[in-house]
Design a protein that fits this description.
Length: 411
């Protein structure tokens, strides 16, 4: 072997070594790039998966939220028809898919916070198992009793017969409507200067405005509302002082007072209650007079029954807020209020019977409005009875008038 061959062999070896070294660098670079690429792709894959998952969760949540809101809207609607509504629970309501609502269900629970406030929990569940729960506080609207243009309003029936007339004060300036959740009839020679409306069916009788069937029932006080009202009235009455015993002779009471007994009048006895509609006289017993005159200028609350017969007079003092006679009839007698005697025609007031019938007959002559809150009872106006309904009648007592959301929370 010559020296040149030896030199070439050495150069070749060095070249090969350099080539292998360069090849190793390339391999390391390629592997590093692949590792970085793999990390990037893995991150992108994870990010994409997270985005898909978040998007899916967002879609599920949006569907469930829409269903929960649909349940809340349903509760508002039903509470506006019935302030005693308690929700769908334990049952669920299934909604078919529309352009506004996905396929799924909602379940609502309605509980009382107080007489005029409701807590509503609505759970929405989509068909693909997305779920969400909303909690809302709803307030029952309060409207003035008597402000809805109803001369007679009954949670049960209305029967106007004989020569009973439901007219207006002044005559011909407005209308004296009669509204019942039960049957409503006007017969014989009776006249109603207004519309006849019934929820149970088409009323029958004579009215100057065509008879109609109501699309939704008229609202009345719930047990919770009347219990709260009663406690407030008792507190207000006792704050004005206590009359220990029944009133059986002539007397004059100014402002609020709690009567630990009944009001029983006969002969020529005269009792005057004065102080404005915001004053409360609470009678622990009955209001019973077969003679004499009872002049009411306050909110008169009677725990028992109220009965007027013979030539006695129940007179309501003019002025706003309108004086109201509110009778609980906690004795559960068939008739809670019975007025068959005379009355003044130059005043206005509201007569509200919570339990039992409200009967008007004989020569009774009332200026105001009559309400019966008993779904099993009703208003019966017979004989030579006349009710004159004043224009713009309004009471100091708030009646239920629908519901609206005041606070909404997501759980």
């Amino acid at each position: 072997m010559t020296n040149s061959e030896t030199i070439l062999s050495s150069a070749d070896v060095r070249c090969r070594r350099r080539s292998r070294r360069n090849s190793g660098y390339v391999t390391v670079i390629v592997l590093s790039f692949l590792v970085v690429f793999a990390v990037i792709m893995s991150s992108l894959a994870s990010l994409t998966t997270a985005q898909v998952r978040n998007s899916r969760q967002g879609l599920l949540r949006a569907k469930a939220l829409t269903l929960a809101e649909a349940g809340m809207d349903d509760a508002v609607h039903r509470l506006s028809l019935d302030v005693g509504y308690r929700g769908t629970s334990p049952s669920t309501t299934t909604l078919p898919e529309t352009t506004n609502v996905p396929f799924g269900t909602f379940k609502t629970t309605v509980t009382s916070v107080d007489a005029w406030t409701r807590k509503v929990v609505s759970e929405g569940v989509s068909a693909d198992k997305g779920s969400i729960t909303l909690t809302a506080i709803m307030t029952i609207k309060q409207v003035k009793l008597g402000a809805d243009r109803a001369a007679i309003k009954s949670n049960g029936t209305i029967d106007i017969n004989g020569t009973a007339n439901i007219l207006t004060i002044p005559l011909g300036t407005h209308i004296a409507n009669c509204t019942a959740n039960g049957d409503l009839s006007v017969g014989n020679n009776s006249v109603v200067d207004g519309a006849l409306s019934s929820y149970s069916g088409l009323p029958h009788g004579v009215g100057y405005v065509p008879n109609t069937r109501m699309e939704s029932p008229a609202q009345f006080f719930t047990d919770a509302m009347t219990a709260a009202m009663k406690q407030n009235w008792i507190a207000e009455a006792k704050a004005g002082g206590i009359w220990d015993g029944s009133i059986t002779s002539s007397a004059s009471i100014s402002g609020s007072r709690y009567i630990k007994g009944s009001i029983k009048l006969n002969g020529s006895k005269v009792v005057t209650l004065a102080g404005g509609g915001n004053s409360v006289v609470n009678v622990e017993g009955d209001g019973d007079h077969s003679g004499g005159v009872l002049t009411n200028g306050v909110t008169l609350v009677v725990k028992g029954t109220f009965s007027q017969t013979g030539q006695s007079v129940y007179r309501i003092t003019n002025g706003l807020p309108t004086p109201t006679l509110f009778v609980y009839n906690e004795t559960d007698k068939p008739v809670g209020i019975k007025i068959t005697g005379g009355s003044a025609t130059d005043a206005q007031g509201i007569i509200y019977g919570l339990n039992g019938d409200v009967n008007m007959a004989g020569g009774a002559n009332i200026a105001g409005a009559i309400y019966c809150g008993d779904p099993e009872g009703g208003v019966k106006a017979t004989g030579n009875f006349t009710l004159r309904y004043p224009l713009d009648m309004e009471s100091s007592i708030g009646a239920p008038g629908g519901a609206f959301v005041t606070q909404l929370l997501e759980l």
